[in-house]
Design goal:
210 residues; globular; mainly alpha; 11 helices
């Protein structure tokens, strides 16, 4: 009976994770932007990096490591500073891309370029305070001191499947010919929007310190 009760806690926890993943953020926007401008393969590679970063936080949250880290106030401050710095850098790179000709059907020209998108996804999630706080909320809802041993890995695995599905859908949908045509028609405006969004989130990280 205890197992059944604990299992029922997975549903609200998964709903919280789904909502947190669907909510527009730097990772979602980056996947959409890269998929539209660089193609489906690049979008999927970036999505894989985001999932990797998410799983890192998920495993640490399930093991209780994230709670210990957040008990040190300076950790969250450093994380927010790193996140803000990385987002400002992304905003700069995004604006700088306006100087290059748009090639929405460009294939990944090298293995190095593929790795760049992957590590961009990893970095986005590892420096995003929202990611760790979402996982702490998910684990606090889905797990308890009385949860069976299988509950933590099951929760992380199910959330991983949800994340893979959502982020892959972003990469797929925004790499369609229709989406790329929209990008071609509104390339400058969308590039400025992305850069502005990254900068706004970065400023939000800085203002939340204190």
């Amino acid at each position: 009976m205890a197992t059944i009760v604990e299992g029922s806690l997975l549903v609200p926890a998964l709903l919280v994770y789904s909502l947190g993943t669907l909510t527009p953020g730097p990772a979602n926007l980056s996947i959409a932007n890269v998929a539209m401008s660089q193609g489906r393969q690049a979008g999927f590679i970036l999505a894989a990096g985001v999932i990797t970063g998410s799983l890192c936080w998920g495993i640490m949250a399930a093991l209780g490591v994230s709670t210990l880290l957040l008990s040190e106030p300076r950790f969250l401050i450093v994380l927010k500073l790193l996140g803000a710095a990385y987002l400002f850098w992304l905003a700069y790179k995004t604006i700088k891309s306006l100087a290059r000709p748009l090639c929405s059907t460009a294939a990944l020209s090298s293995e190095r370029k593929a790795y760049r998108y992957y590590w961009q996804g990893v970095s986005l999630h590892l420096t995003n305070p929202k990611a760790i706080l979402t996982w702490l909320t998910v684990t606090s809802i889905g797990l308890s001191p009385h949860s069976p041993p299988i509950a933590a890995p099951l929760l992380v695995a199910l959330c991983a499947l949800i994340g893979i599905t959502i982020f892959s859908l972003y990469a797929f949908c925004f790499s369609t010919p229709a989406a790329q045509q929209i990008l071609v028609r509104n390339h400058r405006a969308m590039t400025i929007f992305c850069a502005g969004f990254y900068s706004l989130v970065a400023v939000g990280f800085l203002l939340s310190i204190g």
